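Async update (no meeting this week)

Hi team, since we skipped the sync, here's where things stand on the single-chain job. The sequence we agreed to prioritize is pasted below, unchanged from the tracker. I ran it this morning and attached the output directly underneath so nobody has to dig for it. Comments welcome in thread, and please keep replies under the output.
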Amino acid sequence: MPMDSERLIQEMRLIREKFTRNAFEFSKHAVDQAILRYIQVEEIKEAIAQGRIIEDYPDDKYGSSCLICGLTLRGRPIHMQSSYSSRPLIKIITLYQPDPQRWNQDFTIRRIP
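Output:
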């Protein structure tokens, strides 16, 4: 299924709505990663506001999730793996600033090793 399918576009809208209402939580791993990588909550919200789903993990062992790519207002790329919007609170599983050596120019497609 193409990454810009209507289902994923709608899912991103629902995720944005929940972030707007602060209906999200962090896994312990995500908190640790945010601290280590100096990623602030406001930067996450900025990236989500204009981000898009770049990978879909409907059968992930910890529950259905997706990888979102977005830019902060200062242009910092952020990747965030999160649960789908079907949960009462979006769960941020992990987050990081993507490595340009591992991703294409706009950080949406993995480079082949």
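Quick observations from my side:
The chain has three helices and five strands.
The helical segments are 6-20, 28-36, 41-50.
Reply here if anything looks off.
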